Amino acid sequence: MSAPDDLVIKVDGREISGWEEIRVTRSVERLVSDFEVAMTERFPGISDVVVKPGQPCEILLGEDLVLTGYVDRYIPEFTPHQHTVRLSGRSKCQDVVDCSAVWPGSQLMNGTVLTIAKTLCEPFGVSVNALNDVGAVIPQTNLNVGDTPFDVLEPMARLRGLLMYDDPQGNMVLSGVGKTKAASGFKEGQNVEAAGIPYTMDQRFSDYGAFRVKMLAFGDSGNEANLITDVQDPGVLRYRPKFLVADTNDGGFDIAIQRAKWEMVRRVGRSAAVHVIADSWRDADGKLWTPNTLAPVELPSLKLDLVTWLISEVSFIRGAGGTHARLVLMHPDSFIPQPFNYQPFPNDLAKAIEESKR
C-alpha cells in the first residue's frame, strides 16, 4: 500500500515510482488538470524509465487517483554529475480544448448543455457529468470551422451558470459554485506554512454602468436605444466609472442589470484572493484538497478573520523543500459565471421588431 504522500504514475498499466519532484495542479477555473514530475539516477532503474509521449497515464497520490490523461512530454537529460527523467502531461480533457470539434452538418438542434457536451466529447473518450440542473434545451447550435468543443460549450455553460472543470478520471464536470465543505481548513499557526493576500484596488470601480444595444440599429432610439443601469461599489471611495456593453444579443434589460452586478461582485471578490501553502495534501479526514470545495480560512496576521471561501486551485507539490499543498481561495461569488443571452430566438426578435414600431 502506498503512503499518503507517495506519487505513482501508471503509464499503459506500468507503475513508475520514486519521483523526487512533483507538481500536480487542479483548478475549478480551467478544464484541464496537469502534472510535472522528475527523478534522478539515485533511484535504481532510472535508465529503464522510457515513456512515449501520447501514452495514457494515471497519477495517484497515495491510494487516491488525482489525474487521468496522457503524457505530453518525456524529457531525459544528463549532466556530468547526474541523469534526470522528466515527464509532463495533462488530463483527458486536453483533447476537448486542443482539437477541433467534428459533427456532420456542423449544427446541433434542441440539445441541453449536457447532451451537446456529451455529443462533442464522446469522440475523444471524455464523458460528461452534471452536478446541477443544466437548464432548458438550446434550440440551435452552430459550429464554426476550427472551433474546439470547449469553444462551443463554454458560452453555453455560462448561459446556464455552470463551471467547467475535470474530475480525477479525466472527464468533464458541469457544476455550479460548490457548496460542499472540506473537513477542515487553513488556520495560521496550525497547518499554514506561508500565506499572502494581494489586497487590490486597481481593478475595482465605483460605478458600473451597463448598456444594452437594440438589435434594430436604425429604429427610433428614444429612451430604449441604450438603457443604462448603475451599480455602485461602496468600497471604492473615489469616482472610478466603468461602462459595459451587456453581452446579450436580444438587448435584454434584465441581462444588463445582472451583468453590472456580476462585474462588481466578481471584481470585489478577486481583489482579495488568498494564496496558502499548507503542510499537507489532505484535510482533517484525509481527503485530498479539492477544487470547488468550501474551506474555512483564518489568517489574523493578514487581517483575514475567519471566513469560508472556495478552493479555486490546488497544486500538490513535493521537492527539496518537502511536501506541501499550494492553494488559491476566494469568496464564492468570485466564480459566478458571467450572465448573458446565448443567442436571439424568434420570439425575442419578434418582440424587438414590435418594440421598434412603438
UniProtKB/TrEMBL annotation:
Domain Baseplate hub protein gp44/GpP-like C-terminal: 256-337
Every Baseplate hub protein gp44/GpP-like second domain range: 93-175
Chain ranges of the Baseplate hub protein gp44-like N-terminal domain: 7-91
One Pfam family named in its UniProt record: Gp44-like_2nd
SUPFAM superfamilies: Phage tail proteins
Protein name, entry field: Phage tail protein
Organism the protein comes from: Variovorax paradoxus
Organism taxonomic ancestry: Bacteria, Pseudomonadati, Pseudomonadota, Betaproteobacteria, Burkholderiales
